[in-house]
Amino acid sequence: MLEKLNDSQLDFLKEIGNIGSGNAATALSTMIGKKVDISVPSTKVVPISQIPFIFENPEEIVCAIKMKMREDVEGEILLILNSKTVKEITKILTGNSLEDITSLDEFSSSMLKEIGNIMCGSYVTALSGFTGFFINPDPPELAVDMISAVLAEVSLSVSTTEDYILLIETSIKIEGIDKELTGYLLLLPNEESLEKILKKLGMWN
């Protein structure tokens, strides 16, 4: 059903992303003690099978922070960070350079979970504010694996019929880091929940 969203519906979901990102930037700034700006360059619906190809290396090991959504809206939301972004963030948090993201220590893992909790939670809160739905996310879970393995687990847990996912690209600028960092918010509501969201927003065709 996600593949049937038109441009105006995607623009609206992008605007929800912009509001959520603004709230997330404020919370992250407080958490790390540096100015953070987050923007949403694009929001699009893509086949789940094509997600690995948005990365330079489709077999890259990534860090995924995922949260199940429950109550009025059910499904999964997750934040995916590539290895470069994870290394930059952990350097800010710990002061140490990380060679391999599969060897995250407990502190770094906990901090990345909290970053995912902030970013995913801010989008869920914004979505809840627009719809009036009560959305109760589970505590965040951290997975470090190939992107294809992460997506396989998520898509199986939500639906056996949905082959598409809502991809919200986020550009993260952190004070003291010259380069922009990229994160990807992936939203996969189940079919019934997506229909409820669109109907509530007056966007159901």
Short description:
This protein is an alpha+beta fold and 205 residues long. The protein has helices spanning 7-32, 83-94, 106-131, 147-158, 191-200, and strands spanning 36-47, 61-71, 75-81, 135-137, 141-146, 164-174, 181-189.
Characterise the protein shown here.
The protein has 205 residues and is an alpha+beta fold. Helix content is 42%, strand content 29%. The chain has 5 helices and 7 strands; from the N terminus they run αβββααββαββα. Strands 1, 2, 3, 4, 5, 6 and 7 form a 7-stranded antiparallel β-sheet that branches. It is globular. The termini are close together.
Topology, pairings included?
Layout: H1 7-32, E1 36-47, E2 61-71, E3 75-81, H2 83-94, H3 106-131, E4 135-137, E5 141-146, H4 147-158, E6 164-174, E7 181-189, H5 191-200
Antiparallel strand pairs: 1-6, 2-3, 2-4, 2-5, 3-7, 6-7
Helix pairs in contact: 1-3
- Proportion in helices: 40-55%
Could you describe the largest sheet, including whether it forms a barrel? 7 strands, antiparallel
N-to-C SSE string, H for helix and E for strand: HEEEHHEEHEEH
Radius of gyration, Cα only, in angstroms? 16 Å
Low-confidence stretches: none
What distance lies between the first and last C-alpha atoms, to the nearest angstrom? Answer: 12 Å
Which structural class do you get from the secondary structure elements?
A: alpha+beta
Shape: globular
| Number of E-state strands | 7
Number of helices: 5
Strand-residue fraction?
A: 25-35%
Mean pLDDT: 80
Notable traits:
205 residues, alpha+beta, 7-stranded antiparallel β-sheet, 5 helices, 29% strand, globular
